[in-house]
UniProtKB/TrEMBL annotation:
Residue span, FAD-binding domain: 14-347
Annotated signal sequence range: none
Positions of region (Disordered): 544-582
Name of the protein in its database record: FAD-dependent monooxygenase
Domain of life: Bacteria
Entry keywords, A to Z: FAD, Flavoprotein, Monooxygenase, Oxidoreductase
């Protein structure tokens, strides 16, 4: 007998998330933050993640975690990472300085154990009214109108759960992926690393991530602070039954580290196999994959958990919009295309970084070292390396346009690129959105229109701007950001309208033609008929993000504009949800 999920206030079934790690927890908070009921099932014992390998949270993840109110608690709990430095044969090659990032509230990485990250996000989940239930998924039937999941609870009970949507965020050995019959594709040989945590008595900086390359192998250090580090050592193979001993790490440190140090007793050690796999699809009807369930890759650059957090946010606002009826169901198709391409890029870059660090031949080592030192000297390493490491270079441009203008070659943005604007759910707490007033805040649930005058901040611009705003549905979020100088190199000299998604990526760049902007809204899958249709009366206002806002002024400048009543529009025929979503 099928036992449906608990009925909530609107009679809807909660979204079922399988996996209570960082990705599943972030996704649950995203949905709860928009009033979508969620149920989280996790089969991992609560204390089993104390020895996890994900320890770095990069700036882009902190920006997105700010949406649920988790960025600041994480920043307080973690150790700040200001630079990533590379060595070859104990001599410096170059350094990427995260502290030089200018377009983010978080110009640093954080080194923090994964279980502490989970603690912080779980606290947010509980504050939003959610919880994690301990149980194991034993089956999934996705052949009907809605998926049905079999769960064995820790108290011996079993249950069949019918849900509108199921998300597998249950790791590299995902049961959801397996039961859904989705292939986990990959290529290349696995690379082995011995990893462990413990104290080091030596001259190592507490705010610097080190990669040390030699012809004998690679060594990495990540600082937890207070003299404690995560060590990662490449090993050619491992056939022993026991975990790698402290003596192995000490010997490798003596051979490969640029500075001497004595490793103390290690808390734990293990062998990590750096596989490279991406699921053939991240969506099968009403079932989605996120995080390690959909992709795994080398630990080089510590991109794994961070990529999963971007999965969670990308899927979260889209799924919430479809459930609430403000976005068309077709927008869910973009989750697979956007995030699978992003994962494949990370697979490529981390695989290259891993292979470059394991070069053994004198010629290839010499070529690598010459290229990196040249990139350091010319500033190319900082220009391209910092956005890559921070994950600021993630773009949702059409695949064919990626080769026309690679991200990083120019500061000008295109549709799909990240814009330094940030959002925060109202349920994330009072206080400012991520960015603290230095950057515009956009709507956390749906697209926002940003208006840019370019070099034409005059009466004609005001007239065009107000005419364009008058055509938007009442209540649609819109801001004039013309006075903020930080957008000049990004948006250019000409007036334009920018349709920005809740995750800060650009949905469309248009001129000031109302028809062009309205078409962009339709292409962004906005359900215009679901927006408020109240008549405009009196005088309305539009917020201008000016220099005062950039300086952290308490209130933005407000520009009055004459109200206009939009032309009536024929109501759109709603898409039949069952067919559209399957």
């Amino acid at each position: 007998m099928t036992i449906p999920l608990r009925e909530h206030s609107g009679g809807e079934r909660p979204v079922l998330i399988v996996g209570g790690g960082p990705v599943g927890l972030v996704l649950a908070c995203e949905l709860l933050g928009q009033g979508v009921p969620v149920r989280v099932v996790d089969g991992t014992p609560p204390d089993s993640s104390l020895h996890s390998r994900a320890i770095v949270v990069w700036p882009r993840s902190l920006e997105l975690l700010g949406r649920i109110g988790a960025a600041e608690p994480l920043a307080e709990a973690g150790n700040r990472l200001d630079a990533v430095t590379y060595f070859s044969q104990k001599r410096p090659l170059g350094s990427i300085e995260m502290s030089r990032l200018k377009d983010t509230p978080y110009p640093f990485g954080l080194v923090i154990p994964q279980h502490r990250t989970e603690d912080v996000v779980r606290d947010r989940l509980i504050a939003l009214g959610g919880k994690v239930e301990q149980g194991t998924v034993t089956g999934l039937d996705n052949s009907g109108r809605r998926p049905v999941v079999d769960v064995a609870w820790t108290d011996g009970r079993t249950e069949q759960i019918e849900a509108d949507w199921v998300i597998g965020a249950d790791g590299a050995h995902s049961s959801v992926r397996r039961f859904a019959g989705i292939e986990f594709l990959g290529s290349g040989e696995d690379v082995l690393f011995a990893i462990g945590d413990g104290p080091i008595d030596g001259d190592l900086h507490d705010n610097e991530l080190l990669y040390c390359y030699t012809r004998g192998g690679a060594l990495g250090f990540a600082p937890f602070g207070d003299g404690r580090f995560r060590l990662a050592v490449s090993v050619p193979g491992w056939t022993e039954d026991h975990a790698p001993p402290r003596e192995l790490f000490q010997r490798v440190m003596d051979e490969r580290a640029p500075r001497p140090g004595m490793i103390g007793p290690l808390d734990w050690t293990t062998i990590f196999r750096a596989r490279r796999r991406v699921a053939e699809t991240l969506r099968d009807g009403r079932v989605f994959l996120a995080g390690d369930a959909g992709h795994i890759f080398s630990a080089a650059g510590a991109q794994g958990m961070n990529t999963g957090i971007q999965d969670a946010v990308n899927l979260g606002w889209k799924l919430a919009g479809v459930i609430r009826g403000t976005l068309e169901p077709g927008i869910l198709d973009t989750y697979d295309s956007e995030r699978r391409l992003a994962a494949e890029r990370v697979v490529l870059t981390t695989a290259k970084q891993t292979s470059w660090g394991l070069f053994r031949g004198r010629r290839e080592v010499a070529v690598r070292d010459t290229l990196v030192r040249s990139a350091q000297r010319t500033g190319v390493l900082q220009r391209f390396g910092a956005p890559l490491m921070a994950q600021h270079d993630v773009t949702y441009r059409p695949a064919e346009s990626l080769w026309q203008t690679l991200p990083g070659l120019t500061r000008a943005v295109r549709a799909g690129d990240r814009l330094p604007v940030f959002s925060r759910h109202a349920s994330a707490g009072d206080g400012p959105a991520a960015g603290g007033g230095r950057w515009p805040s956009v709507d956390a649930a749906g697209p926002t229109v940003l208006l840019w005058a370019g070099e034409r901040q005059n009466d004609e611009w005001v007239r065009q701007r107000d005419a364009l705003l008058a055509t938007l549905p009442a209540g649609f979020p819109a801001q004039d950001v013309s006075a903020w100088p930080g957008f000049a190199p990004l948006l250019g000299k000409e007036p334009r309208a920018v349709l920005v998604r809740p995750d800060g990526h650009i949905a469309a760049l248009t001129g000031l033609d109302p028809a062009e902007l309205r078409m962009a809204l339709r292409r962004a899958r906005v359900v215009l008929s679901a927006l408020p249709r109240t008549e405009r009366v009196g005088t309305e206002t539009v917020t201008e993000m000016g220099a005062s806002a950039a300086a952290g002024a308490p209130a933005p400048q407000v520009i009055p504009r004459k109200a206009e009543k939009p032309a009536p529009e024929k109501p759109e025929k709603p898409e039949e949800p069952e067919k559209a979503a399957s």
